[in-house]
Amino acid sequence: MESNQAKSSLLASESDSQRTLSPYVTGTSVVALKYKDGILMAADMGGSYGSTLRYKSMSRMTPVGKHSLLGASGEISDFQEICKYLDELILHDSMWDDGNSLGPKEVHNYLTRVMYNRRNKFDPFWNSLVLGGVKKGEKYLGMVSMIGLSFVDDHVATGFGNHLARPILRDEWREDLSFEDGVKLLEKCMRVLLYRDRSAVNKLQIAKITEEGVTISQPYSLKTFWGFTAFNNPTAADLRLLTILPENRVLQQRSPPPPFHGKRQQVMANLNRSITLCSLLLLLLISPTKPEVITLTPETFSDKVKEKDTAWFVKFCVPWCKHCKNLGSLWEDLGTAMEGQDEIEVGEVDCGASKSVCSKVNIHSYPTFKVFYEGEEVAKYQGKRDVDSLKAFVLEEAEKAEKAAAEKENDNDIDKEL
């Protein structure tokens, strides 16, 4: 009986000693660099529960003692455990009361030993750590991976930042960066990560550490623009690229020619090349083509003009109107001219057959030309009736509407998060 209790107690203690064997709530990239007065570090405040960006107010940077600043990506609970280790280390150091204190180099070495030790126990902390600091005028910036690999550099990044932000830092970092230029460079890196990393959130903090100590900014958001064609319809962008590629390049990418070893192999190679070419041509022929001008009806009007990130330039006419007839093929020519503008659609409404639509948007004369963005009327055209003037007008109004919508969305996100 006693042996069973001892055995169960032993199993319980082993279970209690284990922490994160796989990550649950994680943070993404941390980016840091040296500038002329100290160290700057940036991280967003997102926490992903699996693939869900669930938490949006998690700070992942903390001061360590008098001279150091720590940032972490990876498992949040492991980062909290590491912070407890560091609190104990700093407390133990201060108890000596010898007038000395641990600097960033000592803290970095300590973290390297901790991470390597946990890796050897097959129970690692699932974090990548960035440690920066200033002591006696000497700037120090280093990184430690989850397996205890460490290095120092003038700029470092974790997560996707190591792939997307480091190239920017290599091109634009310089030793005499001012505080303002350093912040701009970090914001540029964080904006790229926000565009490309699904785990990033547009709410970040920037911290600096100098001889005077650590300062961590209040959370704020970056100005962004999401109207790029590749963001709105990546598949369409890839298809256009495919049609632009020279024929021989497409063949090389799709089916590299096998080596020729005699007449039979040459025949088979030519056959494979022909099949590949026919397949590409068939794909292009059967791809659905979008009409240049889309006819809108009471059943489709509301859903179409409410499409996200899309501007609609709509002509309202009736068949018996002399001025509408005088337009001729102007609207069809405009539709052709707008090909390739995926964020702008050209439509028309027959007010004779769709009176409810025209009444809803206050059409009192014909022809009338209006621009809608995400369901809202944003402009009415009253200029020259030629393709160039119409195209210039809708491009300008669409750009204005996109920027206004982006600013509104950023403001709403900040209100919700705060």
Automatic annotation (TrEMBL):
Biological processes annotated in GO: protein folding; proteolysis involved in protein catabolic process
Protein family: Belongs to the protein disulfide isomerase family.
Keyword Cytoplasm attributed: yes
Location(s), subcellular: Nucleus
PANTHER family listed in its UniProt record: PROTEIN DISULFIDE-ISOMERASE C17H9.14C-RELATED, THIOREDOXIN DOMAIN-CONTAINING PROTEIN 5
Name this protein carries in UniProt: Thioredoxin domain-containing protein
SUPFAM superfamilies associated with the record: N-terminal nucleophile aminohydrolases (Ntn hydrolases) (SSF56235), Thioredoxin-like (SSF52833)
Superkingdom in the source lineage: Eukaryota
Organism: Linum tenue
Coiled-coil portions: 391-418
GO CC field: endoplasmic reticulum; nucleus; proteasome core complex
CDD domains from the UniProt entry: PDI_a_family, proteasome_beta_type_4
Membrane-spanning residues: none
Keyword terms: Coiled coil, Cytoplasm, Nucleus, Proteasome, Signal
Subunit structure: Component of the 20S core complex of the 26S proteasome. The 26S proteasome is composed of a core protease (CP), known as the 20S proteasome, capped at one or both ends by the 19S regulatory particle (RP/PA700). The 20S proteasome core is composed of 28 subunits that are arranged in four stacked rings, resulting in a barrel-shaped structure. The two end rings are each formed by seven alpha subunits, and the two central rings are each formed by seven beta subunits. The catalytic chamber with the active sites is on the inside of the barrel.
Stored PROSITE patterns: PROTEASOME_BETA_1 (PS00854), PROTEASOME_BETA_2 (PS51476), THIOREDOXIN_2 (PS51352)
Main location: nucleus
Domain annotation Thioredoxin: ranges: 251-399
One Gene Ontology molecular-function label: protein disulfide isomerase activity
InterPro entries: Ntn_hydrolases_N, PDI, Proteasome_beta4, Proteasome_bsu_CS, Proteasome_sua/b, Proteasome_suB-type, Thioredoxin-like_sf, Thioredoxin_domain
